[in-house]
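pasting for ref. prot 1 ->
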Amino acid sequence: MPIVKNLSRAVSQLLQSSGCGCGISIVPVRCIGVSPRQVASDASFHSVSFSESDHPRVLITGGLGQLGVGLAKLLRKRFGKNNVILSDIRKPADNVFYSGPFIYADILDYKNLREIVVNNRITWLFHYSALLSAVGEANVPLARAVNITGLHNVLDIAAEHNLRLFVPSTIGAFGPTSPRDPTPDLCIQRPRTIYGVSKVHAELMGEYYHYRYGLDFRCLRYPGIISADSQPGGGTTDYAVQIFHDAIKTGKFQCNLKPDTRLPMMYIDDCLKATLEVMEAPAEALSMRTYNISAMSFTPEELAQEVQKHVPELQVTYNVDEVRQAIADSWPMNFDDRNARRDWGWKHDYDLPELVTTMFSFLGSDSRIAQAN
């Protein structure tokens, strides 16, 4: 203990006066979120590069949402089970917990998140924690905290530790004054939901950190994502998932959007493929840091007609939710994704007929197993 005390005293004296007689200046710390930290004004960060024998160490925040579990599965096949850590603030199902590393991570706890990155030697971070459109409108303060303050924590940690950072954006990043058919990568963005506002903020902050500090920030604007692996989670485009569950379970579906509401959509496998491809793309191939990606665009009526080819007895009614309809009416009808296709070779695999067939092949088999049991 005397040694520790003497060492502590020596360090204290050293901090009070340097050997050259110059006082050590204390730099004010900029606070964002819940913990103090700073990015030096002259900092310059660079993403970690990997040789062919190396793999990135990956952290996925908000991992129990619609995309996190599927992305973890894809990345574990690519980089190895133990190199991909799934995280969330919720308790995972057994199959998720035992499929690979899972930890508790609260993006609003800067210190905890920083420790996770350091202790696990993280090099790639996929930031999926967010409150979606309809849910965010019901709780704006929480959406502001999660979608904006949480993002600030992630950006600062990614910059400090030289991470390659992916943050998804959305069709919700556009508003009623944006061109809707098609919507290009660069145009007016004036969303009218806290979800959309927070995503525009994420796009601009990520690009700022890239140009200011050299952060390797990458972002894709997702269309509505359709998946058989997850239940609808409060998004405006969730009707396109719900219709399959209702067709199998009850044969009746009530849509909360107008039958002619056209929105861009994508099957989850295409979404995950695009995410991995843009993360693996050489930095010099990227002409921008935020890209539109698209696969198909359809209306509830067109989707119902395709579903009825598999379930002819499906009865479809419309009970329009004014909040969700207003959101959908402000979003793009079609995405222009030519820059993604040109810069890093993006190409989708699923159109509407393939999407519907694939969804029923998954959900239909699960339903038959359940009925047999």
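and prot 2 ->
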Amino acid sequence: MAQYKGTMREAGRAMHLIKKREKQKEQMAVLKQRIAEETIMKSKVDKKFSAHYDAVEAELKSSTVGLVTLNDMKAKQEALMREREMQLAKREQLEAQRLRLDALREQERRQERKRKISSLSFSPDEGDEGAEGAAAGERPKSAEMSRRKKHLGKNPDVDTSFLPDREREEEENRLREELRREWEAKRERVKREEMEVTFSYWDGSGHRRTVWIHKGGTVQQFLKKALQGLRKDFRELRAAGVEQLMYIKEDLILPHYHTFYDFLVTKARGKSGPLFNFDVHDDVRLLSDATMEKDESHAGKVVLRSWYEKNKHIFPASRWEPYDPEKKWDKYTIR
């Protein structure tokens, strides 16, 4: 690389290729060594078995000179085979113990290497302090270990806010969880608050009533309470159920499953006024300002669905339409 002439980018690429080739050569050398070791082990096994049978045969020949019966011959042969197998088993056991000891030593060396690597510090002052410690020579070991632990980790002089940090992420998650629980507790507290809802039972003319209900209650729960108070005064409601009633607020037909809390939080608007005020009051400001929203609130209407189907072509039912949370009413109208 000293004689290479070219751009820095090409020089870096050439250096990368050289390192890659060297790594491949090392891998090939390791693979060749492994194959050679396997071949040697295989030859050793073959020699071991051949030597085993040769030794048994030689011992058998030396111990069976002359005329010997077949049973004595077999017994002698089995005894020699067992003795030889026991010797081989002991030798293999010693070899396995040696291999285990070598593996343990290699594992200890790897752990020691990892420990040394992990004890390195990114702080530039560590080298100077190490030199001072070597010069002193009498510093206690505990002090040296505490100094090492103190300098482990990132360099405190460098901005590392862009790097992943487990402690910072855990702190952020803990704070986020606390805020979520606090917000949920506040929401549940608001939902349990009671408010007065003013409405009119509409059968062609208005009959005003009031009902107290929790802010977290649904429109269906409100209609159930309203129906309980209206049944004794209106004969047509005595056999009616909640599903046969409709609640119209600011010329919008509100679904039964919506809660009053939904309208309060979103500051929903209707065609003729706000949906987040459920009492009745007029705009009493002395000066009108076109940039300020009017503060008028009208009583909602409770209507039988059958009456609406018969009179939906007549005012005021002709203005009513289903509530759509995606639809925005930028200007109130009453005509």
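Residues 121 and 152 are 5 Å apart (CA to CA).
Confidence is low (pLDDT under 50) at residues 121-131, 282-293.
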